[in-house]
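SAMPLE LOG
Freezer: B-3
Tube label: C17
Construct: single chain, 154 aa
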Amino acid sequence: IVHAYTAACDSFEPWVEYLDGKEEGGKVGVSPNSGTSASYGRAEGYQTLKEEKGDVLWKAVECVIPDVRQRAKQKGSIALVGTPLTHRRYNQRFRGTYGPAPSPGKDVWVLGGSNTGIRKLLACGDTCFPGIGLPGVAASGTIAANTLASVRAQ
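STRUCTURE (predicted):
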């Protein structure tokens, strides 16, 4: 399994033309599996832009696994490339962003913990410490669980 992603610092502007209203209004607001939310994938030029942006990741992975593209085409292999529109659609996130956002007035590297402003309501996921990716999300869930009950009590 190879899971690669770039930093979310690329401009969203090249993707805007594939939005229904040609402007970003925030969350999609419809089921991720509806024809409406998936229409961008059928738009002319979308696949070309997706391949162009995805090529950056393939080249990076090829530095470690030179024949990764050939392996990805083998029987039983699955290769999926997501875009900011994919994240926007499935995660319902503004401009397809992911991960934590710094709190106003705080350093960008200070990630929020599991505590919320509501007693005994804890947060976990990519928006909390330790951040994005399956290991980070799983660890944030463990941190939240350990905040509620000791390991021995679990």
